[in-house]
Structure formats: C-alpha cells, structure tokens
# Entry
Amino acid sequence: MVELTKTGIDGLDEILNGGIVRNSTTLVSGNPGAGKTILGLQYIYNGVELYDEKGIFLSFEENADDLQEAAESIGLENWGQHVEDGTIKVYDKQELLRENDFSSSLELLLGDLDNESYEQLVLDSLTMFQLFFDNEREQRTYLLKFTDILSENNLTTLMTNEQGTVFPETEVGLENFLTDGNIFLLQTPTESGVNRYLWVAKMRKKNIDTDIFPMEIRQGGITVHKNASAFSMMSEEDSPL
Ligand SMILES: Nc1ncnc2c1ncn2[C@@H]1O[C@H](COP(=O)(O)OP(=O)(O)OP(=O)(O)O)[C@@H](O)[C@H]1O
Ligand SMILES: [Mg+2]
# Structure
C-alpha cells in the first residue's frame, strides 16, 4: 500500500485520492500570484495543526517575518507560535543566501534533520534555488541529489516553481520529469478579477483526478472545488483551455 500525506487543503486531498505519496517530491508550478506560496504555507501549517507532523519551510524568496505576515493574513494565526516552539522550522532568504554555495546551506539543513524528525518540507522556490548553480547540468545533478536526501530523511516535499501551464507548444522543464508529482496553479483574468484553477498533472504511483478544477483563495486559504458543475458553469472565455 502506498502511504499518503494529507495536505489538509479543502478539496485537494479528494482530487489526489487521499493525499500526496509519502516521501515523494511534488512540483507546484504557476505564474506570479497564482498561489504557490500560500499552498506551501497551508501544507506545512495543516501538517502541524491537523496531523501532528512537523514541517520545514525553506524560502529563497521571503524573510521569516514576511512569511509569518503572509501566513497570518490568510488566517493561519498560529504560524508564529509554531515557529517559536519548533514544530515549524523556517529557513528564510537571509539565512539561505548568507551561505554562498548550496553545499553550506545543505549542511545547515542536514544538521537539523539529524537532530529532529520532520515529516514535511516546502522549498519556495525551485526557480530561486537554481540560481545557486552555474549551468543546467549542475542544477539537474543537485536537484536529484537533493530530492534523494529529502526522501532518505522521510520528508514529503512540495517545491514551488515559476512556470506557466504546460501546453504542447511550450517547453516542459526538466524539473517536471525529475519530480514525482506535478501540480499546476493557473489564473486567468476576468472583468471582475481572476478565475483560478488547479490541475494535478502527475502523481507517480497514484491514480488521480486529472481534470482542471476551479479554486479560490480567500480568508482561510485555498479551496479547490471538486464539483465539476462549478467549472462547466464558467463561460468558454473564462476557461483556461
Ligand atoms: N486573504 C486573501 N484573500 C484573497 N486572496 C488572497 C488573500 N491573500 C492572498 N491572496 C491572493 O493570493 C495571491 C498571492 O499568492 P502567492 O503569494 O501564494 O502567489 P505565488 O504564486 O507564490 O506568487 P509569486 O510567484 O509571486 O511568489 C495574491 O495575488 C492575492 O491575489
Ligand atoms: Mg510565492
């Protein structure tokens, strides 16, 4: 039996038929503002609040205070308290970028993994993480090495990635192949704001629902609407396809 880790995000675990495969790495891709960071924050927060699983949040994009503000602004009120008591471990931009190569940052992380047991990890974002490396070959090698280390330490990981939806004519990044799961967040402008969608394109070892589902971001975080009628009610123009 494949073991699963729940995200605790409304609607998402259902689409995933129970959750993310344990000890796997899933890429969460989308354009700026699509909700990648929020999804990551909720995943780590729900792990602690709902499932008693400790989490690590690696942010190459924000510092710890900004992250806490982002979490609190969507209603994850106990974020700061969990960081304080160590059930959520944050490595922020300042800390990660202080080390001038990835090996030193990795040493930091490995030290903590030896002393404490964590179950969940978010890397926000892979795009920034890749700037540590000079060329694509090195990026690929390190990504593989890093995902192996995470899996050996029994971590179930989400990595965010700046990447639009994959249509046949666009190039599919190698990171999509090197990870076990792919989730895409899409947003399309409308007259009154934006329509948001979520698409689970791949989850190795797992039967998943590969339709594109509408989602919302509001107080409390992300809600994915499994209910297909909500989708069909949207006009053609609003559809991402
Ligand atoms: N309380 C809220 N209610 C409704 N929408 C919100 C709320 N908080 C944030 N948002 C929406 O979420 C979006 C930001 O999501 P998030 O920061 O997760 O995006 P991202 O994909 O990480 O973007 P980037 O690539 O720039 O890091 C904002 O653009 C905003 O529209
Ligand atoms: Mg972000």
